[in-house]
Amino acid sequence: MALSTVATSAYIADLARRENVGASMGALSATMDIGHAAGPLCSGIIIMQCGYLIGFGASLFLALASAVCFAVSVRSAGE
Fold first, then answer.
1. Handedness of CA 45, 47, 51, 53 (dihedral sign)
2. 15, 16, 47, 59: which could join 24 in a potential S-S bond, CB 3.0 to 4.6 Å?
3. pLDDT digits 0-9 by tens, 30-60
4. Which pTM value belongs to this model?
5. Distance between CA 10 and CA 45 in Å, rounded?
């Protein structure tokens, strides 16, 4: 979590145009706040309905999918 938070903030700062950095960082913070609020709730619902294996498996899948999307976007931005 700590690595992705630092990397994402730096990535947003690099991608945004100078006049849009503040809005970009605000959108990133809002998205992170929504994720921090909704993540445990959604995980709890999945665990309650399907069990721990599927609940934590879903969290693993989302983390891996996010890492792949981030790696692809960094690669395409660097070209």
1. positive
2. 16
3. 888 888 888 889 999 999 999 999 999 998 9
4. 0.58
5. 33
